[in-house]
Amino acid sequence: MASDCGFVLLANITLDASQRPARTPYVSELPKFLQETAFLDRIRGLIPGWEIPKLSPASFAEQSGLKADYFSDILLLLRQELETDAYCARHIQLGPDAYQRNQESIRALASGYMKLLFPHGEVSDADFQKYCVQPAINLRQGVWDQLYTLDPEYRKYGQFVTP
Question: Could you tell me the residue range of the domain that residue 105 belongs to?
Answer without folding.
Answer: 41-51+83-163
